[in-house]
Design goal:
With 88 residues, the protein is mostly helical. It has helices spanning 3-9, 35-50, 63-76, 78-84; strands at 23-25, 32-34. The structure holds zinc ion (ZN).
């Protein structure tokens, strides 16, 4: 199957193995992921920006690097994001 067909025929998220209704491509890896995992990536990117790191530098960086970023900015950046959003 071509990459495009694979994208549309995949039944499960590459990351959390949830069934795929809506799907999207990961920013950080070449995985096809569900919207929950996508939301998590969006939060990670937001946290990275809040911590002064440009996420575009990490586009396609791979799973291992993403897990590292998530762990690092998930704690470091989240407080700043929360502060910016006024507790939302
Ligand atoms: Zn998922």
């Amino acid at each position: 199957m071509s990459g495009r067909d694979e994208f549309f025929h995949k039944e499960r998220c590459d990351r959390c193995v949830a069934g795929l209704g809506a799907r999207t491509m990961s920013w950080f890896t070449d995985e096809t992921i569900c919207m929950d995992c996508s939301d998590e990536e969006v939060r990670t990117k937001k946290a990275m920006r809040a911590a002064g790191t440009d996420p575009s530098f990490y586009e396609g960086c791979g799973r291992e690097q993403y897990e590292e970023l998530k762990a690092r900015f998930g704690t470091e950046g989240c407080l700043k994001v929360r502060a910016e959003e006024g507790g939302a």
